[in-house]
């Protein structure tokens, strides 16, 4: 270029200066999704008066010259960061249309199409101005005006300032005079001010603010979007005008408590997020005007001052509302001096392994408090009627608060992530919280409720199963009744042995008399250790008929465990079989009755029922479960609770005829009680399948072919293993398959449906709630819920302050009703901790059990299980729920089962390991999970397993999961770049990521890459290779090799990105080409 041409280019430039942090973020998200409408601002206005378009355009030309932002473009020169270049002159981007020939309905339709088209069109950041103006004549004195611009030019505060200037110019020109506007400062003045601030002090402040940041706060009621990029049609809005009485209450409250309305809205939003996510601290984004009062005239500068920053609020339930709010307001005041720091820089202050790799927050609170009305026009100008306003950011959920004489609350949301019903519910609950929050500053934060009285009533109705009068029967009275009414009915079948109800009842009576003769007293606990054969049923019925309660012992337990349980149960008598005598004999201090060895003696006792009164409140059994203190704890369950359960579950299962119930699990846990007591308490037949068949699919298949069953309850992973070994319909029951103990996978449900036509029921309930309390029919759905409460049961989803929660909110499941266990044997403190008073029951003295299970109500469908509240680990200082990771992996196609554990890696280090069952690529699983979960929750090691190890109860045996020694090294040996393209990309990565060594299989993000660095990488690679490379491509192809292959496929020159002159190729636009030589 000649010297004169070079001089001419320079003469086009008025100014050049760095972009601000907020501008960088907007440019990044716009480049990532260029047609999504993100950070596009748009207003449409109707002018109804005599109107001269030429005067209107002249007014806009004046305003463009007045405000430098409208003559600004954004380019990268020889730096990683873009710069903004202000030109002296730009063409007015105007379009004038005439729709006068169109009917009014077609005009409205055409306007809607134009608005959407302009939103999707986006902008080229290298061409100024980044706005477009449409003026459409609709009638003689009716015009549409559409103003579309990019947020990178100006914020919401600036928009009214610009329109005010336009209207003032329009009035002046129409009157034949020049506009008289006050001098306007340029945005460059603000950029200088920002660069003059003490950034080190600001960084220290924000590091302190982020010191308690843990994981991003989950969004309430969000549904997973399957779209790779947001679409304009996904952008939705829903608003509500706060009623007058609440607005007056808010105004009175803020005055009396000396807090701002903004502070109250922040607190209410924090409470809503905390209640929905079941957290005691939440983080969300807040917008600040960003206009420093220290900068003279800042209120009249047009530009993008607004900034978005994280706000973490702790929910102190014990604090007074007024004190809590004033503390929050003091924090807001302390932040004011440091609000100039852009969000990306704030986020960069977190450690490289921070869970905020995808952002600090997912929701945004915008308090719109602009000083000038957007509907600003002079008296002599045309009548202006605002029609539509469009503005969306990159967050799935934004709460807009527009104060004034009235108060408008509006959610702007991604329709692919939120339904209109969910957003409506959130608005309702936000208003409820605002009303409760401002009712009195003296109340405690914990007392603030999310739901109104009418909604709470509806939730309590849904929390109750059908009413049913409690039975006064006992287990033994139910068996005796069938033995009397239908003595020859089959009671149990074990191999070739079959006992009728009369025979079973008589045998149990004889054993009861025998035990009484050995000194068994009413209420005494008796150990029971037998194989899964008739002795088991005779033994437990005989113990209960004698007035005792049985304590089941699994013969496969270690001897130490057996001795520990018998000791804690204070069992001085044990009923067993000869093969188990050595396991239970102890030191000779127990009376041991062996049913097979001592049967001659037992059979000499009467076959009639002992003269012992057994009532519904009396203990039936004590099951010992693993205890958090390291010693087993005994759950004490009464006869009435068992009978109540049996009646409820049979009603829910809909079993017909004289059905055969298969018992396939140990009696030492209550999983098998659905079959055991479900059959015996209702006159059905119990089919005892020996232990040898539980893990032998072929032998089990042969047995069930010989004698099919009608009802089977089994742990899903156990069934999955059986069906994998023998995919045959004969392994399934004829009537009803009951799944319990864990959540079934989608692949298992599909396999079951493909094999047979039995009903599939998911059954949930802890031992403390007597076998089961909720169920869900999964026969025709892949949505796995634990369902709704059975008859006479109650299932509440409560927060940590025992407040009832609405549908969609995460909370702990509390179970109530007549079938609760009595508590823990000889552990009054633990009993009081877990069995607490039921504040929602109408019957005095009612209790509810704290399950420790994290759940949520799904509107109209039932309860969804999400994992354990106490299944937490700490990894690199971050709190992680293993259940959430496992749930995420199980949702992947092809995954049959999954488990995650924290394993010792030596040298004081631990690693998160994922164990996966299924015909899937582990690399693919890791990649897909990385798209769902934050980095600390992504397993660093993945191990394929043929089956997950199971306990004898059919549940996952976490202790048996292989250690890290069995896991292949997750990262292969360093493989250096293999081509010129790979080497050049590696050079960029080394510099940006500050790493000496980059391999071709290394992942940019796993090495510490983030959105700030991706912008720099994108700019360098564009300049280096001169190709159409999008920001999204860097996310799609995160490894060196994949990105190089993509670039190679993009019509690269044979020289692999190097021009014939040996210089890197550059991306050219008219302005960058000129500026590179200027």
Structure write-up:
The chain is α/β, with parallel strands linked by helices. The protein folds into five domains: 3-190, 2-Layer Sandwich (Chloramphenicol Acetyltransferase); 198-376 and 392-449, Chloramphenicol Acetyltransferase, CATH 3.30.559.30; 451-474 and 639-816 and 854-865, ANL, N-terminal domain (Rossmann fold, 3-Layer(aba) Sandwich); 871-966, 2-Layer Sandwich (GMP Synthetase, Chain A, domain 3); 980-1076, Non-ribosomal Peptide Synthetase Peptidyl Carrier Protein, Chain A. 34% of the residues lie in helices and 22% in strands. The protein is built from 33 helices and 40 strands. A nine-stranded mixed β-sheet has the order 16-15-24-23-25-26-27-28-29. A hairpin with a 2-residue loop joins strand 15 and strand 16. The longest helix has 18 residues, at 104-121. Residues 1-6, 372-380, 968-972 and 1051-1078 have low confidence and may be disordered.
Approximately how much beta-strand content do the residues carry? 15-25%
* Mean pLDDT score: 86
Q: Helix amount, in percent? A: 25-40%
Give the second-level CATH assignment, the architecture of the largest domain.
2-Layer Sandwich
Count of beta strands: 40
Summarize the main sheet: 9 strands, mixed
CATH domain class of the largest domain:
Alpha Beta
Structural class: alpha/beta
The gross shape turns out to be elongated
Q: What count of helical segments does DSSP give?
A: 33
CATH fold type of the largest domain: Chloramphenicol Acetyltransferase
Runs in which pLDDT lies below 50 for 5 or more consecutive residues are 1-6, 372-380, 968-972, 1051-1078
Strands in their spatial order, largest beta sheet: 16-15-24-23-25-26-27-28-29
The CATH H-level superfamily of the largest domain is Nonribosomal peptide synthetase, condensation domain
Distance between the termini: 9 Å
CA-atom Rg in angstroms: 36 Å
